Each structure stands twice: as structure tokens, then as C-alpha cells.
Amino acid sequence: MSTLTQAPPEVTGKKRNLVEMNWDPITRIVGSLGIFTKIDFENHEVAECYSTSSIFRGYSIFMKGKDPRDAHFITSRICGICGDNHATCANYAQQMAFGVRPPDLGEWIVNLGEAAEYMFDHNIFQDNLVGVDFCEQMVKETNPKVWDKAQSTQAPHSNDHGYRTIADIMRSLNPFAGEFYREALQMSRLTREMFCLMEGRHVHQSTLYPGGVGTVPSVQLLTDYLTRLMKYVEFMKKVVPLHDDLFDFFYDALPGYEKVGQRRVLLGCWGSFQDPKECDYKYEHMTDWGRKMFVTPGVVVDGELVTNDLVDINLGIRILLGSSYYDDWQEGETFVKSDPLGNPVDKRHPWNQTTTPRPQRRDFKDKYTWVMSPRWYDKRTGDYLALDTGGGPIARFWATALSGLVDFGYVKATGRSVKIHLPKTVSKPAVEFEWKIPKWSNAIERDRARTYFQAYAAACALHFVEKAMEDLHAGKTKTWNEFKVPDHAIGCGFHEAVRGVLSHHVVIRDGKIANYHPYPPTPWNASPRDIYGTPGPYEDAVQNTPIFEENGREKFKGIDIMRAVRSFDPCLPCGVHMYVGDGKVLETHHSPMFGVSAKP
Amino acid sequence: MPSNEASTSGAKQRSSVRDVHVIWMTGGLSCDGDSVSVTAAMQPSIEDIVLGAIPGLPKVHLHNPVLAYEVGDDFMRHWYLAEEGKLDPFVLIIEGSIPNEAIKREGYWAAQGTNHDTGQPITTCEWIDRLAPKAWAVVGAGTCATYGGIHAMQGNPTGCMGLADYLGWKWKSKAGLPIVNVPGCPVQPDNFTETLLYLLYQAAGLAPMIPLDDKLRPKWLFGQTVHHGCDRAGYYEEGVFTKEYGKPECLVKIGCWGPVVDCNVTKRGWMAGIGGCPNVGGICIACTMPGFPDKFMPFMDRPPGANVSSKMIEIYGPAIRALRSITHRTVNEEPKWRHRGSKLTTGYQQETYH
């Protein structure tokens, strides 16, 4: 069975003139992504979309036979903006496989580093990459009428952020020239300094190890971190209202804008920030310690929480082929028949995957990308769900809010929302922000959640600094515990990379890596049509996107498509490309339902 | 991408070069980590360069996919213009390992942009073949582009390599510059922008030929080892080695390769002097080196070469430490004339003013 994702609106009986429009590469993301579309200009909508990646490197192949202790050093290099998320996730998997639990302080230091990563990465992506799609220059070029309106629209929170009109906000987002653009870039350096205090270097950390960290804890270390953190907290009190004003304005200025990038609510979050008091890294206890994470894991379908049990989440992962340049491994070796609790493990689960690349010509009717199609098997319905991460924050908030488990003073999950409390800073009083479950999973709400999650990460960091200081004051300064690499073991790590779900699965035999499969967020989001014809999330979200851009075919920039794609925070080390083909009419035919292979 | 409008005003320029384009390809087998790293640079920052905040620089037009305003064809236009010689002079920066596209019949390992005639991706190798002969200088950003790096590890399926392996170690640009390698995984932010700044000065006629070593690295950045700059080298000297992570002593016995690795991270730190590797508790895994990663794995084991050297130091190091501890105790005592009482004992000509 496959999932029927929302089909593009039918325009029954009408002729459709479809124009091929491709964007290759999609810039202002990390990695190489191409978006190939067919657009119906008469009806202002995208009829069809394919997402393609231009790079293959082969981590799962060259890691075979290597020392399992090297996994986090190697896998950090998968991603050049959130490499530390990979290293951390690899450490979680190693710790499970090696049977070692870091000292509390080691875990707090990892959490402080990862919190700084979220603060940095969401900040630079939102304000220096995504923000450009909402800047004066871009809005003038794509929607002059919106720009006119922005000039006469007062910003509701101008007292908080200092920009009088929405146009003033847009002007401040102009690349390099804009004041807020440059302020955000500077802030992204301050948060990277915080990161380097805990994890040594950015983007490929130097101080993480299985069993803990090499960072030497001291009063100075925590002071250096905390004083910078408070500057960021102050910054958040400006940024959250600024983005609220900007995003709310788009709903107001362009009625129907909620449909841009909208897809069915199919969200996955694998949880973030371990609590060292709870997490022993034993698979047998994963259900319990997973629910104690400071960001709750969960699968959310149509607004309902299907599960927040990491064991369920783990066993549901399936890697499908269909449109990717790989051989199937159905006949290959089964490395893990059952998990440590005795549950059967599917052949298409990452523990049992064998990666065999088969380079070939790109053919959009057959194989067209190096990305595979990760799906989550919903045992209630038998569907292979094309979950997305929404770029990370929206899924994290949704799962955390519905679970209602997180409550540590600075943050409280209410069941319908998440409240974030930030203390007084140098020029602003204490504030409380509340992220509320939105009506849609769309581009604007993905972007909005990203801003709120920056505040969430800062609130978590405040808590972690306090916990680390308690340990330090109590003389508990150990940050690393020794371990032995077993001859035979399996392990898995679950984490949230900045842009969403991250898992690492390892199989150790004879003390070496026998199989290793990392699944970062972007394979989920950028996946192509799978064997059942279900499109991946970018494809699906873009296919549902109406066109609001005022430019016609000749000067078309595809800004609504860009906003839809970038809202997922693409990070392929693979890319999306957009070029307006030759403007030639590709196909003319009746009754659309074009491109989406809907199956019963 | 905006560019500086008037960086030429004020400072005197000796050459006629007023505009330099930077074509930055992240489309090797990379993680884009070098581009991201460069956004952390502060001496100089990327906006210092682009907005002309440094006197004497030509006007810089940066074309980098992570930061570009343009998308798709609008962005790729600069690649075609560079190929047609319309962006001269331009600096070509390559990020990521160069895959071997010759080992297979069809398809691609790494590509950027689409060929409009065939509808197929244009490989990164093809772009290098088209642009390198036209470039004023070719720069490798990070260890993947310079020497192959992680993706060129033993057992890799793509046969990838570094720029000099691909173009030839003796390769020279049309302006007579060798390939310029700035290794690091990722590249240290300021190391890269500083090298770019040097090249821009050179292009403007304000600096002589960039000094490179035999691995094509800027000499002033890679002339010393990690150990030379490490603040834990003092422990090494005294033969004090930690056996666990998270302690302040020398890490050589638990995997640090610092004594034989050419890199300035321990001196420069990572950002604003903060962070680094062994100086902050991270073993040096030699990520700047041509032999990275295979010659240094498993990373957490003691380097074989450190066996003998650290044993020798453990013989005389403790003696030095013992001698120092005597002096150390002495210098921790204040001179005896600092006291209360009615007598002055500092050695001044009189003992009292009574």
C-alpha cells in the first residue's frame, strides 16, 4: 500500500498548458538540489515537481571494515552545517553498542554544544538564506503590489524590534546591505563561539567521543558560554516578534498564501537533548528515556500523535527505492533479524540495508536522483508514510506540544502549545513566547516555528548551564567514561539534526563496522517518488503550491516555489535547481491528475 | 550577490584590475562545510571582502551557491560568462573532492547545473575542465578539494581525489599561479579568507607571488605543527600524558597526532581565538594532511610514532618537572619583606622613620 498524498486541485475539463521550469541549482541552501517542475501558468499552479540531488559520496560503503570508534569522526563530514549533529548521533549509537554512559557533566556539555548549534544554524539559515526570499529586493522583483502594501503597513511589534513598517523589515533583510541581515550574521558568529567552547570547532567538532567529551570543564568555560547566551536571549526578544510581523503580513497581503508549500500533516521528530539522569543508552529502556528528552520524539499524522515511543519509531523506518540510482538489497544479507527486545526487524530497515550505487542517466520517468526514499510504516493503516521534518522545528514543536511531557521551568509543553520563558536581559524585561499548533503544515508555519525554536534552544541552554554549574560546584568534573569495543553488537542513535530527524544505525562484527546507515532529515524531505509512486515531501509540497508571483512566464522567478522548498531547510549536500526551460509548451491535455501516482 | 561599490576610493592601486569575480564551486564531493566555515570568518569577514571594507582591494563579485541571491539559471549564468572570458580575471574556488567520472559508463557522481541540450547534469569535472584554463587562480578550499579527504578514503566507490591529483601538481594558471591549497576539514575560517585576501591583493598588484610550500599550502599558515602552537606542549615536555579525555594534560597517548601535523589551529583557535583541537581537549586527527584520513585511523589509538618519543620524554620529563617544582615552590612565595610591623626590611637605606 502507499499513501495518497493530497493531489493538486483538479481543473476538470480545462486544457492545461504545462511549461517546464527547472531550478538547478537551488542556491541558499546547503548542498546540491535541483527542482524540476511543470507549471500551469493559466491556472497559477504547479502541476508536477521532481526533486533531484547531484552528489553521491558513499559513506555507508567506505565505512565498512573501519573501527567503530571512528564513526563519529567520519560521519560528521556528511554535513557541512550540522556535522556535529551527526557526530552526536553517532556517539549515541556507539554508546548503545559499546554499553557506556557518559558522566552527567559530559552529557550537559554535549547538550550545550547542540543547543548552540540550533541557535546558530536556524539563525543563519532563517535570516541570511531564507530571509532573502522575503527581502525588499526580492519582493519588489516578484510582487510589486505586496511591496506597495508593505510600505504602508505598520509593524504591530515595532516597539519590540525597532522597525516601523513591514517594508522596513524587508529592507533590513537585503543581502549584505540590510542591517538585520548583517546583525544576524554577526550573531551567528557569537553562537558559533559558544559552540566552539563546548565542542571545539565548527562545523566538524573536535572534542566529542563515545563515552563523553574531551572538553575540560571550568568556571570560565561556563561563564564564557553564559554571557554570550544572554546576548542571544536579548536578540530573541527582537527576532520572534519581527518574524511574526513579517509572516502574518504575508497571510494578510496575499490571501490564500497558506497554501504555499502546504501538505498533509505528516511530521516526524526523533527527539533531542538527553537527560543524563534518565538515559542509560540501553535499547531495552529506550521507550522510557526517549520520553524524557528535552525535545519529545513523535510521529504526528493529520494533527494526531501516533507515537512518541522511540522503539516504535525505530522499527517503523523503511528505506524504499523506486527513483534512485541504487540496486535493491532484497537478496542481500540480513544483519539484524530482531531488535534486543525480540521484535522483528524489516529487511528494508537501515540495520539491514546494503548500499550499491548504480550511476546512470537521469530520467524523470524512471531514476532521477541519488536520494533514496525513507518512509515510516504506519502499522495502523499499512501506509508507508512520506514523513517530513518541516525543516525541524515545526515537527519538534508539534510532537513536544502534543506529548505534553516537557516541563522544566524555562519551557512547558501544554498539550496544545509550547511556552518558552526567557529571563530579563540587559535592555528588555522577561518575556514568555507561546508556540501554538498551527492550522497548516505549510511554508510560513515551517519558517515561523524555526524562529520560535531558536528561543526554545536558548531556554534549554539556560537550563543546561545551571545543571552543568551544579555538577561543577559539587566537584563532579569527570566528562568521559572508559569503554571496550565489543566484538559483536548493534546500536542506534536518534537525534534531531538542525533541520529534522536524524538516525544512525550500526552493526559491529569482529570489532569492525559491518554495516552503517545514517538517515539525516534531507533524505526524508528530498526523497523522490518511491516504489509505490508516492512523491517525496518537497515534490508533494511544491505540487500543491499555487503561484502568487506577479511576473508572467517570461520573467518568472518561482519565488513561491523557492519559499516552499526553502521552508524545509534543504541540506542535501545535494541540491535543487531552477531554470525556466525555454518556456516551451510541453504537453496539452485534458483532465490533469498529472504526475501524482495516486494509488488505492 | 552584491559587491562593494567603491573600495577603490582612498587606497592607491597599482594595477589596472578593478573587478575580480570569485566563482566558487561547492559541487565537488563535499559537505559545503568550507563555505559555511567561511561565514564564520572575522579576519577578514566575508562581508568585509564583499562590501569593500578593506583598503586597496579590487571590487569583488562573489558567486557562491550557499550565499547567492540568484537561483538556477540566473546563478549559473556566471559560470558560462567565466567560460566565455567575460569575467576576467576570476578566481576559481573548488570545494569537495574531485570524483573519477571515467570509471563508469554513464551518469554522474557530482554535478552542477543542467546541460540544456541533453537535459543531463553537467559534471563538476566538466566545469573544472572548462574553467580552470581560463581562471586567474585556482584555489582548493578544504581537505577534500586539496587532497581528497574523507570521501577519498580507502574502499570509496567514486575514486575521488584532490585538485592537484586531477589537474597535475605542476599545473599553473594562465597568470602563472600554481594551485593554491588551503586544507582543513573544514578549512579554518580566517585561514581561508586571509588567503583569499592575499590573492586579491596580488591580483591588484599590491602583493608579490603567494608563497606556497611543496604541498601548495600558504607558507605562513602551514609552516608550523599543531604541537608547536599547542598550549599542552608544556605537559609533553614534562612527560605528563593523560589517559582519559576531559583532562588538561597532553593527549598524545590517546590519539593526538599534533607533533607531525602542519596546521595553525592551536595558535589561531577556531573563532576569535576560541576553540581548536588539542588545546581544548580534541585529539588532532590530522584533518589538514594529504594522508588524511587513512594514515591516522583508528583515530583514538596512540600514533605508532609517539610510542618511542613519548617513552623517551617519560625518562627526562619527570626530572625536568622535579627541578621545576623546586623553583615553582620558590616563586610561589612572596619576598620576606612584605609584612606588618614597625621595621622596614626591604633593604632601603633606613629601617625606620621614627
Features:
heterodimer; A: 600 residues; alpha+beta; three-stranded antiparallel sheet; globular; B: 354 residues; five-stranded parallel sheet; two-stranded antiparallel sheet; 11 helices; 9% strand
Structural summary, described in words:
The complex is a heterodimer of chains A (600) and B (354). Chain A is an alpha+beta fold. Chain A has helices at 59-62, 71-75, 83-98, 104-130, 136-142, 144-151, 158-161, 166-172, 179-199, 219-253, 286-291, 310-316, 393-403, 443-473, 521-525, 537-543, 559-566; strands spanning 16-23, 33-40, 45-53, 208-209, 212-213, 266-269, 298-301, 304-307, 317-320, 373-378, 383-385, 411-413, 417-422, 431-436, 489-497, 500-509, 512-519, 578-589. Chain A is 35% helix and 18% strand. A four-stranded antiparallel β-sheet of chain A has the order 3-2-1-18. Chain A has a three-stranded antiparallel β-sheet with strand order 6-7-8. A three-stranded antiparallel β-sheet of chain A has the order 9-10-11. Chain B has 354 residues and is an alpha/beta fold. Chain B has helices at 33-38, 46-50, 72-83, 124-131, 142-147, 163-167, 189-203, 219-222, 233-237, 265-268, 306-331; strands at 19-25, 59-63, 90-95, 111-114, 121-123, 137-141, 180-182. Classes of the chains: A alpha+beta (600), B alpha/beta (354).
Please list the strands of the largest sheet of chain A in the order they lie side by side: 3-2-1-18
Please report the two chains with the greatest interface, counting residues with C-beta closer than 8 angstroms to the partner's C-beta: A-B, 90 and 83 residues
Share of residues in helices of chain B: 25-40%
Q: What is the H-and-E element order of chain B?
A: EHHEHEEEHEHHEHHHHH
Distance between the termini of chain B: 80 Å
The fraction of residues in strands of chain B falls at 5-15%
Uncertain ranges of chain A? 1-12, 573-600
User: Given the C-alpha coordinates, what overall shape of chain A results?
Assistant: globular
Mean pLDDT of chain A: 91
